[in-house]
Amino acid sequence: MTATGTFTPRPGAAPLGRMIAAQTALETRMLLRNGEQLLLTVVIPTLLLTLFSAVDIVDTGSGERVDFLAPGVLALAVMSTAFTGQAIATGFERRYGVLKRLGASPLPRWALMTAKTGSVLVTETLQIALLTAVAFALGWSPHGSPVSVLLLLLLGTAAFSGLGLLMAGTLKAEATLAAANLVFILLLVAGGVIVPLSKFPEAAQSALQLLPISALSDGLRDVLQHGAGVPWGDLGILAVWGVLGLGAAARYFRWE
């Protein structure tokens, strides 16, 4: 005999952790299915690492070229996913009303941002694994503490995520698309990723060193190429960018 109420529906929100996990998985699948995003986040960094390591195009100083290039390309991968890719995707979600609809769901808005951050971290893990394998195949010999590398990557992700969400939440989708790609190209050239900052005029070097991409690439290079300890200066710059970017995004982000 069936007990009364066994088949009675029980409407209500799922546990918060399950909602965040489901949204994170959805965001990750959407990102990995997007060919343009894969080009930006995977193909371009891999090609840059392979090309500039194999061909003497830029003078990277003494030692193997891949030892200089690999940390910078890892920093580029973080920027491409946490900043450029996230800004463009979130900007168009906002334009098409996706964020407005999600905002009306049981998923809290802070949990939606947590899911997006989780998706970025999953994608970065895949990127770093691929780029590390390619760099090892090219003869890379990394040094230094994995803990320092992890701190740099996490703070770099926070800094670029804040800036990406700020851009996506304040500009129109088309403007975000253009601005995010332009910033990506400018920081690729002037952020110490491929071209050493020492190649720029001394007057510009002090300003360029304060950029988040410069702090991330230089910090990773100090640890992985030179075996330095914790790069507190670079971590501090990334922390400031992270606080300012995430704080401004939380204050000025428009959901529709």
Task: Give your account of this protein's structure.
Helix content is 73%, strand content 0%. By secondary structure, it is mainly alpha-helical.
Per DSSP, what share of the residues sits in E-state strands of 2 or more residues? under 5%
Count of runs of 4 or more consecutive helical residues: 10
Structural class, by secondary structure, is mainly alpha
- The overall pLDDT average reads 87
Radius of gyration: 20 Å
- Strands, total number: 0
Largest sheet: none
Helix content: over 70%
Distance between the termini: 52 Å
Overall 3D shape:
globular
| Poorly predicted runs of 5 or more residues | none
Overall number of structural domains: 1
Secondary-structure element string: HHHHHHHHHH
Topology:
Blueprint lengths: L15 H18 L1 H20 L10 H31 L2 H6 L5 H29 L8 H25 L2 H18 L11 H7 L3 H13 L7 H21 L4
Helix pairs in contact: 1-5, 2-3, 2-5, 3-5, 3-6, 3-7, 3-9, 6-9, 6-10, 9-10
Structure in a nutshell:
The protein is an all-alpha fold and 256 residues long.
Identify the notable features of this structure and list them briefly.
single chain; 256 residues; mainly alpha; globular
